[in-house]
Amino acid sequence: MPAPFDPARLLEVLGRHDVEFVLIGGLAGALHGSPAATNDADICPARTPDNLSHLAAALVELRARIRTETEPDGLAFDRSPEFPAVVELLNTTTTAGDLDISFVPTGTGGYDDLAERAVPFDVDDTRVLVASLDDVIHSKRTAGRAKDRATLPVLEALRDELRGGARLT
């Protein structure tokens, strides 16, 4: 049975293992102020050898497993640093809820691209780089999935509000 979503714990474990990443997706939107609900965390980690080792250690501690619809507890996978080096996307379930890892999120150039515009947030006692709201919106628009299209009006309204004015259409 999947564990309840505990984003503070997920982020704390990643931080304690010194994983360099940018938080993306719905949780990033929520930290910017979006009321849209999310039930997972999405990250874009740096793909350096050292960082892949840090990420692997965090995945071991979180007992990460590949998330599938047919196996509620997920499937075992190689959590060594070499495995993330050869994949683009990992959808996992962990002891702190679902964690999706995307090395090059749709519409972005990956970690370095996102990190230069990312905004630091404190989540409990963990400092987290969060994708800019513009990057979250752009990635969701580019991905074009129904669930992403559904949240775009909320995210765009939030962006307009944060910029101090309503957008005229």
Give a topology summary.
Blueprint: H1 7-16, E1 21-24, H2 25-32, E2 40-45, H3 49-61, E3 65-66, E4 89-94, E5 97-102, H4 111-115, E6 119-123, E7 126-130, H5 133-143, H6 146-162
Parallel strand pairs: 1-7, 2-5
Antiparallel strand pairs: 1-2, 3-4, 4-5, 6-7
Radius of gyration, in angstroms, nearest whole number: 16 Å
Shape descriptor reads globular
Uncertain stretches of 5 or more adjacent residues: none
Based on DSSP secondary structure assignment, what is the total number of beta strands? 7
Order of helices and strands: HEHEHEEEHEEHH
Report the biggest beta sheet as strand number plus sense, adding barrel if it closes. 7 strands, mixed
- Helix and strand content put the structural class at alpha/beta
Could you walk me through the main structural features you see in this protein, from its secondary elements to its overall organization?
The chain has helices spanning 7-16, 25-32, 49-61, 111-115, 133-143, 146-162; strands at 21-24, 40-45, 65-66, 89-94, 97-102, 119-123, 126-130. With 169 residues, it is α/β, with parallel strands linked by helices. It has a seven-stranded mixed beta sheet with strand order 3-4-5-2-1-7-6. A hairpin with a 2-residue loop joins strand 4 and strand 5 (97-102). Helix 2 packs antiparallel against helix 5 and helix 5 runs antiparallel to helix 6. The radius of gyration is 16 Å and the shape is globular. It starts with 6 loop residues before the first helix and ends in a 7-residue tail after the last helix.
